[in-house]
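call fold(seq) -> tokens
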Amino acid sequence: MPDNLDNFVRELQDRIYDDTLRDYGQEAFERWLNPSYMHEMENCDAHGRITGPCGDTMEIFLRFQDGRVSDASFTTDGCGPSMICGSLAAELAIAKGPDEIREITAKTILDTIGGLPEDDVHCALLAANTLQVALNNYDQ
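ret:
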């Protein structure tokens, strides 16, 4: 019995991975498996938190040095696409100044990841908006 269960679980996981890779692409799939920058940041210079209409909450933390983001991170209680988009938003902010960060939109995130299925596009908007809230909370 354990072998049958182990085989079933392995096959199910393989199907989930195959479906996710097909629907989201290689970049998003890899970021879903290993999201970068996913942690709370202590002593940040800027912080934003939004709960989107889907119920996912995202936080973005920024640390600045010499007017540019030296470190960024995010957390979310949301789905895989929210993790993917939060990870990208944090990465896109690093080494940028406030004016450059203001240019990061949901479209920027979607273009960087190569798009998302239509049902998940709102996750890019959540990440971009959370980044902008964090920037607005930055006391230069």
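The CA atoms of residues 88 and 112 lie 8 Å apart.
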